[in-house]
């Protein structure tokens, strides 16, 4: 996961530089220790401790957000993907279709600029931009701070577009109902295997830009099998934000999730 650490660079490391190679393949795997990652100058126990501290604080804020959402019957979705898969385009198309029927709000996460929030605001739906600066993901604390400005209504739908990054947002619970991962066909069918955490953490995968399939050697079935290998329960819809293909199934999925959130609303 993504560890934000400012120290320990001076610590001597006690391991030798002999690496063992499982399966007989010659590659270096830095994810086989207790922490699942390597940071030069930090031992595995320290990394685990820093991660636990960061994540447990985040989880506290996420629990507060989740309770706020469930009391008000708000379906909060955390949209995650690599940069450019089409998160904002899917939102622009969806909001235009849904805005007369459903109360909607959007939180836009990017390192810099208000471009995505500006695009969303043009649809007539209110969006609030959160810039993370050097940060590579939204955290639950940032989400809690948007509530005053957004005034999210009861029985409504809140889209949270995370920072384009297929790795770090997987580890940070925002208090959402679920994560929706967007993968576009121009990224290659192997992404669920290479970045498994995000696909394991998501309930739904939108395979986007399917209008481009005739121009590519992208094997849809193979990609779906890879995603199910990582997460056997993941639901998968094929969409195109530009042609509109598959978008009706996405809207039906949204409405079904909204109904269950409203039915389960804490009173
Ligand atoms: N052909 C095609 N292009 C698409 C589709 N969806 C998005 N795009 C294009 O892909 C590019 C990136 O789209 P965005 O919606 O900005 O992607 P994003 O995931 O919001 O990007 P970041 O917020 O920067 O991570 C734009 O040029 C879109 O027009 C699609 O379904 N088909
Ligand atoms: Zn990160
Ligand atoms: Zn975007
Ligand atoms: Zn914070």
From TrEMBL:
PANTHER family: HYDROGENASE MATURATION FACTOR HYPB, HYDROGENASE PROTEIN ASSEMBLY PROTEIN, NICKEL CHAPERONE. GO terms for molecular function: GTP binding; GTPase activity; nickel cation binding; zinc ion binding. Gene3D superfamilies: P-loop containing nucleotide triphosphate hydrolases. InterPro entries: CobW/HypB/UreG_nucleotide-bd, Hyd_mat_HypB, P-loop_NTPase. Residues 18-29 have a biased composition (Basic residues). Residues 78-237 form the CobW/HypB/UreG nucleotide-binding domain. Pfam families: cobW. CDD domains: HypB. GO terms for biological process: protein maturation. It comes from the Bacteria. This is Hydrogenase maturation factor HypB. It comes from Candidatus Thiodubiliella endoseptemdiera. Residues 10-32 are annotated as: Disordered. Keywords: GTP-binding, Hydrolase, Metal-binding, Nickel, Nucleotide-binding, Zinc. Belongs to the SIMIBI class G3E GTPase family. HypB/HupM subfamily.
């Amino acid at each position: 996961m993504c560890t934000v650490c400012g120290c320990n660079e001076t610590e001597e490391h006690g391991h030798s530089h002999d690496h063992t190679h499982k399966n007989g393949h010659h590659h270096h795997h830095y994810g086989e220790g207790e922490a699942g990652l390597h940071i030069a100058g930090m031992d595995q126990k320290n990394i685990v401790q820093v991660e636990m501290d960061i994540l447990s604080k985040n989880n506290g804020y996420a629990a507060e957000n989740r309770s706020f959402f469930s009391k008000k019957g708000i379906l909060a979705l955390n949209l995650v993907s690599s940069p450019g898969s089409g998160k904002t385009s899917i939102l622009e198309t969806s909001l235009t279709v849904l805005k007369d029927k459903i109360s909607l709000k959007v939180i836009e996460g990017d390192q810099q600029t208000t471009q995505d929030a500006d695009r969303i605001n043009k649809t007539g739906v209110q969006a609030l931009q959160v810039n993370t600066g050097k940060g590579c993901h939204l955290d639950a604390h940032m989400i809690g701070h948007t509530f005053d400005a957004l005034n999210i209504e009861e029985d409504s739908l809140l889209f949270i577009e995370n920072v384009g990054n297929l790795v770090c947002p997987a580890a940070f619970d925002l208090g959402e109902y679920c994560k929706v991962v967007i993968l576009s066909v121009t990224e290659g069918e192997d992404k669920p295997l290479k970045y498994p955490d995000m696909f394991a953490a998501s309930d739904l995968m939108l395979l986007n830009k399917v209008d481009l399939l005739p121009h590519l050697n992208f094997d849809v079935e193979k990609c779906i099998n890879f995603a199910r290998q990582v997460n056997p329960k993941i639901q998968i819809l094929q969409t195109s934000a530009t042609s509109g293909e598959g978008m009706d199934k996405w809207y039906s999925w949204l409405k079904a999730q909204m109904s269950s959130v409203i039915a389960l609303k804490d009173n």
